[in-house]
Amino acid sequence: MKTSRYCQYPPGITCDSLDITSINQNIKNIITKILAWSSAGRKLKLNSIRALSVVFLLAILFASIQAATAASFTVTTSVAYGNVNNGGTAPTCYRTANTWNTVPGAYVGYGVPSGGSCPSSLNLNSQSGFGSVPVGSQTVTDGTAFKLGTFTHYNNPITADILLTSVDLTIGLTIVGATPSTTYYTFTRYLDETSNGLSCSCAGSGNSWCCKYGPCVPSNNPCPDRVYWNNLQSTSSFTGADGKQYTLVLLGYADCTNPGIPKSEFITQEDTDNSACTYAKICGVPEVTPPQSLVICPPAINTASFSVTTDVTGPTYQWYKEAGATDIMLTNTAPYSGVTTATLTINPATSAQAGDYYCVVKGSCGASKASSPATLTVVPYPDISMDIAVT
Fold it and tell me: What is the pTM for the complete model shown?
Protein backbone atom coordinates (compact mmCIF):
# COMPACT_ATOMS: atom_id res chain seq x y z
CA MET A 1 0.00 0.00 0.00
CA LYS A 2 1.37 3.34 -0.99
CA THR A 3 0.15 6.52 0.64
CA SER A 4 0.76 10.17 0.14
CA ARG A 5 -0.75 13.17 1.83
CA TYR A 6 -0.75 16.93 1.75
CA CYS A 7 -2.27 19.61 3.95
CA GLN A 8 -3.45 23.12 3.41
CA TYR A 9 -3.05 25.07 6.61
CA PRO A 10 -2.46 28.61 7.82
CA PRO A 11 0.66 29.63 9.75
CA GLY A 12 0.89 28.06 13.18
CA ILE A 13 -0.92 24.85 12.25
CA THR A 14 1.06 21.92 10.93
CA CYS A 15 0.13 18.52 9.68
CA ASP A 16 1.68 17.08 12.80
CA SER A 17 -0.93 18.86 14.89
CA LEU A 18 -3.62 16.83 13.10
CA ASP A 19 -3.80 13.16 14.00
CA ILE A 20 -3.26 11.92 10.44
CA THR A 21 -2.04 8.52 11.65
CA SER A 22 -5.31 7.92 13.38
CA ILE A 23 -7.30 9.05 10.35
CA ASN A 24 -5.31 6.81 8.00
CA GLN A 25 -5.74 3.87 10.35
CA ASN A 26 -9.52 4.36 10.24
CA ILE A 27 -9.41 4.29 6.43
CA LYS A 28 -7.32 1.12 6.52
CA ASN A 29 -9.86 -0.50 8.81
CA ILE A 30 -12.68 0.31 6.39
CA ILE A 31 -10.76 -1.12 3.40
CA THR A 32 -9.94 -4.26 5.38
CA LYS A 33 -13.67 -4.77 6.03
CA ILE A 34 -14.41 -4.32 2.31
CA LEU A 35 -11.81 -6.93 1.39
CA ALA A 36 -13.17 -9.34 3.98
CA TRP A 37 -16.62 -8.95 2.47
CA SER A 38 -15.66 -11.27 -0.41
CA SER A 39 -16.71 -14.39 1.44
CA ALA A 40 -17.24 -16.44 -1.77
CA GLY A 41 -13.56 -16.49 -2.56
CA ARG A 42 -13.77 -13.86 -5.31
CA LYS A 43 -10.78 -11.59 -5.71
CA LEU A 44 -11.58 -7.95 -5.27
CA LYS A 45 -9.13 -5.78 -7.20
CA LEU A 46 -8.83 -2.10 -6.45
CA ASN A 47 -6.44 -0.22 -8.79
CA SER A 48 -5.49 3.38 -8.32
CA ILE A 49 -8.45 4.09 -6.04
CA ARG A 50 -7.98 7.61 -4.73
CA ALA A 51 -9.53 8.24 -1.30
CA LEU A 52 -10.01 11.83 -0.19
CA SER A 53 -10.53 12.11 3.56
CA VAL A 54 -11.20 15.07 5.81
CA VAL A 55 -11.01 15.50 9.52
CA PHE A 56 -14.56 14.94 10.64
CA LEU A 57 -16.06 15.95 13.96
CA LEU A 58 -13.87 14.47 16.65
CA ALA A 59 -16.81 14.42 19.04
CA ILE A 60 -20.36 14.05 17.76
CA LEU A 61 -23.41 14.43 19.98
CA PHE A 62 -26.04 11.81 19.18
CA ALA A 63 -28.62 12.97 21.71
CA SER A 64 -32.27 12.21 21.13
CA ILE A 65 -34.29 15.11 22.43
CA GLN A 66 -37.15 13.39 24.17
CA ALA A 67 -40.09 14.97 25.92
CA ALA A 68 -39.51 14.85 29.63
CA THR A 69 -41.79 12.52 31.51
CA ALA A 70 -43.74 14.39 34.15
CA ALA A 71 -43.19 13.12 37.68
CA SER A 72 -46.27 12.35 39.77
CA PHE A 73 -46.82 12.92 43.48
CA THR A 74 -49.39 11.91 46.06
CA VAL A 75 -50.32 15.07 47.96
CA THR A 76 -52.56 15.30 51.02
CA THR A 77 -53.87 18.68 52.20
CA SER A 78 -54.82 19.56 55.78
CA VAL A 79 -56.25 22.82 57.16
CA ALA A 80 -56.59 24.37 60.62
CA TYR A 81 -57.69 27.73 62.03
CA GLY A 82 -55.98 29.50 64.93
CA ASN A 83 -54.77 32.80 66.39
CA VAL A 84 -58.22 34.41 66.29
CA ASN A 85 -58.16 38.20 66.52
CA ASN A 86 -54.35 38.02 66.52
CA GLY A 87 -54.33 36.37 69.94
CA GLY A 88 -56.64 38.95 71.52
CA THR A 89 -60.12 38.56 72.95
CA ALA A 90 -62.23 35.95 71.19
CA PRO A 91 -65.30 37.17 69.30
CA THR A 92 -68.77 36.98 70.81
CA CYS A 93 -70.17 33.43 70.76
CA TYR A 94 -67.06 32.08 69.02
CA ARG A 95 -67.45 28.49 67.85
CA THR A 96 -65.18 26.06 65.94
CA ALA A 97 -65.66 22.65 64.36
CA ASN A 98 -63.91 20.11 62.15
CA THR A 99 -67.07 19.17 60.27
CA TRP A 100 -70.01 21.14 58.96
CA ASN A 101 -72.95 19.59 57.14
CA THR A 102 -71.02 16.26 57.18
CA VAL A 103 -68.12 17.85 55.23
CA PRO A 104 -64.71 17.59 56.98
CA GLY A 105 -62.60 20.72 57.12
CA ALA A 106 -61.84 23.65 59.41
CA TYR A 107 -64.68 25.97 60.44
CA VAL A 108 -65.08 29.03 62.66
CA GLY A 109 -68.25 30.98 63.41
CA TYR A 110 -69.26 33.79 65.71
CA GLY A 111 -72.07 36.12 66.73
CA VAL A 112 -75.56 35.79 68.06
CA PRO A 113 -78.00 35.06 65.24
CA SER A 114 -80.43 37.89 64.55
CA GLY A 115 -83.47 37.40 66.80
CA GLY A 116 -81.94 34.32 68.45
CA SER A 117 -79.46 33.24 71.07
CA CYS A 118 -75.87 32.01 71.05
CA PRO A 119 -75.86 28.43 69.76
CA SER A 120 -74.12 25.77 71.83
CA SER A 121 -72.14 24.62 68.80
CA LEU A 122 -71.13 26.03 65.45
CA ASN A 123 -74.07 26.92 63.22
CA LEU A 124 -73.09 28.54 59.94
CA ASN A 125 -76.72 28.62 58.86
CA SER A 126 -77.24 31.46 61.32
CA GLN A 127 -73.77 32.63 62.41
CA SER A 128 -71.15 34.42 60.35
CA GLY A 129 -67.79 32.76 59.83
CA PHE A 130 -65.31 30.96 57.62
CA GLY A 131 -64.94 27.42 56.32
CA SER A 132 -61.99 25.75 54.61
CA VAL A 133 -62.42 22.35 52.98
CA PRO A 134 -59.27 20.55 51.77
CA VAL A 135 -59.28 18.39 48.66
CA GLY A 136 -57.70 15.56 50.65
CA SER A 137 -55.36 13.06 49.01
CA GLN A 138 -54.76 13.40 45.27
CA THR A 139 -52.22 12.51 42.62
CA VAL A 140 -50.67 15.52 40.88
CA THR A 141 -48.09 15.89 38.13
CA ASP A 142 -44.97 17.99 37.88
CA GLY A 143 -45.64 21.43 36.38
CA THR A 144 -49.45 21.34 36.58
CA ALA A 145 -51.43 23.59 38.93
CA PHE A 146 -53.71 21.68 41.27
CA LYS A 147 -56.46 22.64 43.70
CA LEU A 148 -55.79 22.39 47.43
CA GLY A 149 -59.17 23.34 48.80
CA THR A 150 -62.07 25.79 49.01
CA PHE A 151 -62.43 28.77 51.34
CA THR A 152 -65.95 30.07 52.06
CA HIS A 153 -67.24 33.17 53.84
CA TYR A 154 -70.63 32.59 55.47
CA ASN A 155 -72.34 35.97 55.97
CA ASN A 156 -75.46 35.99 58.13
CA PRO A 157 -77.10 38.83 60.11
CA ILE A 158 -75.72 38.71 63.68
CA THR A 159 -75.15 40.84 66.73
CA ALA A 160 -71.84 40.84 68.59
CA ASP A 161 -70.12 42.96 71.22
CA ILE A 162 -66.71 41.70 70.09
CA LEU A 163 -66.29 41.26 66.37
CA LEU A 164 -64.17 38.72 64.53
CA THR A 165 -61.46 40.79 62.85
CA SER A 166 -58.89 38.15 61.84
CA VAL A 167 -58.04 34.48 62.04
CA ASP A 168 -55.09 32.47 60.69
CA LEU A 169 -55.57 29.53 58.34
CA THR A 170 -52.69 27.05 58.22
CA ILE A 171 -52.50 24.80 55.17
CA GLY A 172 -50.38 21.65 55.43
CA LEU A 173 -49.16 19.79 52.35
CA THR A 174 -47.85 16.26 52.82
CA ILE A 175 -46.08 14.69 49.84
CA VAL A 176 -45.47 10.93 49.95
CA GLY A 177 -41.76 10.12 49.77
CA ALA A 178 -40.63 13.77 49.99
CA THR A 179 -37.99 15.20 52.32
CA PRO A 180 -39.29 17.11 54.20
CA SER A 181 -42.58 15.31 53.87
CA THR A 182 -44.86 18.12 55.11
CA THR A 183 -44.75 21.86 54.50
CA TYR A 184 -46.99 24.42 56.20
CA TYR A 185 -48.24 27.79 54.94
CA THR A 186 -50.21 30.32 56.98
CA PHE A 187 -52.60 32.94 55.61
CA THR A 188 -54.41 35.51 57.74
CA ARG A 189 -58.09 36.11 56.99
CA TYR A 190 -59.35 39.61 57.77
CA LEU A 191 -63.04 40.42 58.22
CA ASP A 192 -64.56 43.91 58.10
CA GLU A 193 -67.99 43.29 59.63
CA THR A 194 -70.07 46.40 58.96
CA SER A 195 -73.25 47.75 60.54
CA ASN A 196 -76.47 46.59 58.96
CA GLY A 197 -78.38 49.75 59.91
CA LEU A 198 -76.85 52.03 57.30
CA SER A 199 -78.23 53.12 53.92
CA CYS A 200 -77.62 51.04 50.82
CA SER A 201 -78.72 53.80 48.45
CA CYS A 202 -75.36 55.54 48.86
CA ALA A 203 -73.21 52.45 49.51
CA GLY A 204 -69.51 53.00 48.96
CA SER A 205 -69.76 56.81 48.97
CA GLY A 206 -67.76 57.20 52.17
CA ASN A 207 -70.52 59.01 54.01
CA SER A 208 -70.97 57.89 57.62
CA TRP A 209 -74.67 57.07 57.14
CA CYS A 210 -74.00 54.89 54.08
CA CYS A 211 -72.96 51.25 53.78
CA LYS A 212 -69.17 51.06 53.60
CA TYR A 213 -69.23 48.57 50.72
CA GLY A 214 -71.61 48.20 47.83
CA PRO A 215 -73.68 47.65 45.98
CA CYS A 216 -76.38 46.02 48.12
CA VAL A 217 -78.07 43.12 46.33
CA PRO A 218 -81.03 43.46 46.43
CA SER A 219 -81.05 47.19 47.00
CA ASN A 220 -83.01 46.88 50.28
CA ASN A 221 -80.62 44.24 51.67
CA PRO A 222 -78.51 44.95 54.77
CA CYS A 223 -74.96 46.19 54.16
CA PRO A 224 -72.47 43.68 52.70
CA ASP A 225 -69.18 42.84 54.48
CA ARG A 226 -65.61 42.52 53.24
CA VAL A 227 -63.20 39.61 53.68
CA TYR A 228 -59.60 39.99 52.48
CA TRP A 229 -56.25 38.24 52.80
CA ASN A 230 -52.63 38.33 51.71
CA ASN A 231 -52.42 36.50 48.39
CA LEU A 232 -48.63 36.51 47.92
CA GLN A 233 -47.03 33.36 46.55
CA SER A 234 -45.00 31.15 48.87
CA THR A 235 -42.37 28.65 47.79
CA SER A 236 -40.39 25.85 49.38
CA SER A 237 -38.07 23.11 48.18
CA PHE A 238 -38.05 19.37 48.78
CA THR A 239 -36.33 16.23 47.60
CA GLY A 240 -38.63 13.76 45.88
CA ALA A 241 -38.69 10.01 46.29
CA ASP A 242 -36.67 9.86 43.04
CA GLY A 243 -33.86 11.85 44.68
CA LYS A 244 -34.43 14.93 42.51
CA GLN A 245 -35.00 18.48 43.72
CA TYR A 246 -38.44 20.07 43.37
CA THR A 247 -40.02 23.43 44.14
CA LEU A 248 -43.48 23.62 45.72
CA VAL A 249 -45.26 26.88 44.92
CA LEU A 250 -48.41 27.92 46.75
CA LEU A 251 -50.09 30.03 44.08
CA GLY A 252 -52.66 31.61 46.40
CA TYR A 253 -56.40 32.05 45.94
CA ALA A 254 -58.31 32.31 42.71
CA ASP A 255 -61.77 31.94 41.26
CA CYS A 256 -62.91 28.34 41.69
CA THR A 257 -64.19 28.17 38.10
CA ASN A 258 -61.21 29.99 36.58
CA PRO A 259 -57.84 29.52 38.33
CA GLY A 260 -56.39 32.26 36.13
CA ILE A 261 -58.36 34.95 38.00
CA PRO A 262 -56.64 35.68 41.36
CA LYS A 263 -58.76 36.65 44.33
CA SER A 264 -57.64 38.57 47.40
CA GLU A 265 -61.01 39.72 48.77
CA PHE A 266 -64.77 39.19 48.87
CA ILE A 267 -67.60 41.65 49.13
CA THR A 268 -70.24 39.29 50.49
CA GLN A 269 -73.92 40.17 50.64
CA GLU A 270 -75.87 39.38 53.81
CA ASP A 271 -77.54 35.96 53.88
CA THR A 272 -75.15 34.64 51.21
CA ASP A 273 -71.89 32.71 50.96
CA ASN A 274 -68.78 33.50 48.91
CA SER A 275 -65.99 31.12 47.93
CA ALA A 276 -62.48 31.04 46.48
CA CYS A 277 -60.11 28.13 45.86
CA THR A 278 -56.46 27.60 46.76
CA TYR A 279 -54.02 26.38 44.11
CA ALA A 280 -50.45 25.09 44.13
CA LYS A 281 -47.91 23.69 41.70
CA ILE A 282 -44.88 21.39 41.94
CA CYS A 283 -42.00 21.91 39.55
CA GLY A 284 -38.76 20.04 39.13
CA VAL A 285 -35.43 21.81 39.40
CA PRO A 286 -33.83 21.11 36.01
CA GLU A 287 -31.18 18.45 35.63
CA VAL A 288 -29.28 19.24 32.45
CA THR A 289 -27.25 16.84 30.31
CA PRO A 290 -24.52 19.11 28.91
CA PRO A 291 -23.59 19.55 25.26
CA GLN A 292 -20.47 17.86 23.92
CA SER A 293 -17.46 19.65 22.52
CA LEU A 294 -16.97 19.68 18.75
CA VAL A 295 -14.16 20.10 16.26
CA ILE A 296 -15.09 21.20 12.74
CA CYS A 297 -13.05 21.76 9.60
CA PRO A 298 -14.46 24.48 7.38
CA PRO A 299 -15.14 24.79 4.55
CA ALA A 300 -15.73 21.03 4.21
CA ILE A 301 -17.64 20.94 7.48
CA ASN A 302 -18.82 24.37 8.56
CA THR A 303 -21.94 23.61 10.63
CA ALA A 304 -21.86 22.96 14.36
CA SER A 305 -24.72 21.97 16.64
CA PHE A 306 -24.84 21.74 20.42
CA SER A 307 -27.71 20.05 22.26
CA VAL A 308 -28.85 19.65 25.85
CA THR A 309 -31.52 17.48 27.43
CA THR A 310 -33.43 18.03 30.64
CA ASP A 311 -35.82 16.12 32.87
CA VAL A 312 -38.34 18.91 33.59
CA THR A 313 -41.61 19.55 31.81
CA GLY A 314 -42.25 22.81 30.00
CA PRO A 315 -38.62 24.01 30.01
CA THR A 316 -37.29 27.17 28.40
CA TYR A 317 -33.79 27.45 26.96
CA GLN A 318 -31.26 30.23 26.41
CA TRP A 319 -27.83 29.69 24.89
CA TYR A 320 -24.76 31.74 25.79
CA LYS A 321 -21.19 32.11 24.58
CA GLU A 322 -18.57 32.62 27.26
CA ALA A 323 -16.82 35.96 26.93
CA GLY A 324 -14.93 36.61 30.13
CA ALA A 325 -16.63 38.77 32.76
CA THR A 326 -19.89 39.13 30.83
CA ASP A 327 -21.07 36.22 28.72
CA ILE A 328 -22.94 36.83 25.48
CA MET A 329 -26.62 35.92 25.41
CA LEU A 330 -27.09 34.67 21.87
CA THR A 331 -29.89 35.80 19.57
CA ASN A 332 -31.26 34.22 16.41
CA THR A 333 -28.95 36.25 14.22
CA ALA A 334 -26.68 34.63 11.62
CA PRO A 335 -24.75 32.44 12.05
CA TYR A 336 -26.77 31.42 15.16
CA SER A 337 -30.19 29.78 15.22
CA GLY A 338 -32.18 27.81 17.80
CA VAL A 339 -30.83 29.95 20.64
CA THR A 340 -34.02 29.44 22.69
CA THR A 341 -34.36 25.73 21.93
CA ALA A 342 -32.62 22.60 23.14
CA THR A 343 -30.31 22.65 20.09
CA LEU A 344 -28.07 25.54 19.10
CA THR A 345 -26.94 25.58 15.46
CA ILE A 346 -24.02 27.63 14.14
CA ASN A 347 -23.93 27.88 10.35
CA PRO A 348 -21.51 28.84 8.97
CA ALA A 349 -19.06 28.39 11.81
CA THR A 350 -15.71 30.10 11.33
CA SER A 351 -12.81 30.83 13.61
CA ALA A 352 -14.80 33.83 14.93
CA GLN A 353 -17.30 31.41 16.47
CA ALA A 354 -14.71 29.25 18.19
CA GLY A 355 -15.13 29.22 21.96
CA ASP A 356 -17.21 27.84 24.80
CA TYR A 357 -21.02 27.58 24.72
CA TYR A 358 -23.55 26.66 27.40
CA CYS A 359 -27.32 26.63 27.88
CA VAL A 360 -29.44 27.89 30.78
CA VAL A 361 -32.53 25.70 31.26
CA LYS A 362 -35.44 27.05 33.27
CA GLY A 363 -38.37 24.99 34.59
CA SER A 364 -41.98 26.16 34.65
CA CYS A 365 -41.71 27.27 38.31
CA GLY A 366 -38.74 29.51 37.54
CA ALA A 367 -35.88 27.38 38.89
CA SER A 368 -32.98 27.38 36.42
CA LYS A 369 -29.69 25.60 35.88
CA ALA A 370 -26.80 26.23 33.50
CA SER A 371 -25.21 23.35 31.64
CA SER A 372 -21.50 22.74 31.65
CA PRO A 373 -19.86 24.50 28.70
CA ALA A 374 -18.87 22.79 25.47
CA THR A 375 -15.99 23.95 23.32
CA LEU A 376 -16.20 24.60 19.60
CA THR A 377 -12.79 24.15 17.96
CA VAL A 378 -12.42 25.31 14.37
CA VAL A 379 -9.56 23.65 12.44
CA PRO A 380 -8.82 24.62 8.81
CA TYR A 381 -9.58 21.96 6.23
CA PRO A 382 -6.77 19.46 5.55
CA ASP A 383 -6.68 17.55 2.29
CA ILE A 384 -5.52 13.96 2.62
CA SER A 385 -5.16 11.73 -0.39
CA MET A 386 -4.22 8.07 -0.66
CA ASP A 387 -3.26 5.78 -3.51
CA ILE A 388 -4.30 2.26 -2.66
CA ALA A 389 -3.48 -0.67 -4.85
CA VAL A 390 -4.88 -4.08 -3.95
CA THR A 391 -4.19 -7.19 -5.98
Answer: 0.67
